Amino acid sequence: MVASADHRKPDGSGWVILADPEGNEFCVLRSESDRAEQERRTQGR
Question: Which InterPro entries match (predicted)?
């Protein structure tokens, strides 16, 4: 897979578009719970 476009924001929201070797594209989003867990870890709670 190759990232063909990165639409993420500094807070982790947004999406990345990946393309397989045949050129099929897939959008990947981080879940709200994943972003909340990252925020919790960076704030040391």
Answer: Glyas_Bleomycin-R_OHBP_Dase
pLDDT at 45 > cutoff 60: no
Q: What is the pLDDT of residues 2-39, one digit of tens each?
A: 778 888 888 778 889 999 899 899 998 888 888 788 88
User: Which residue's entry shows tokens 């960076």?
Assistant: 42
Q: What is the 3-state secondary structure (H, E, C) of the chain?
A: CEEEEECCCCCCCCEEEEECCCCCEEEEECCHHHHHHHHHHHCCC
Residues 42, 45: Cα–Cα separation, whole Å: 8
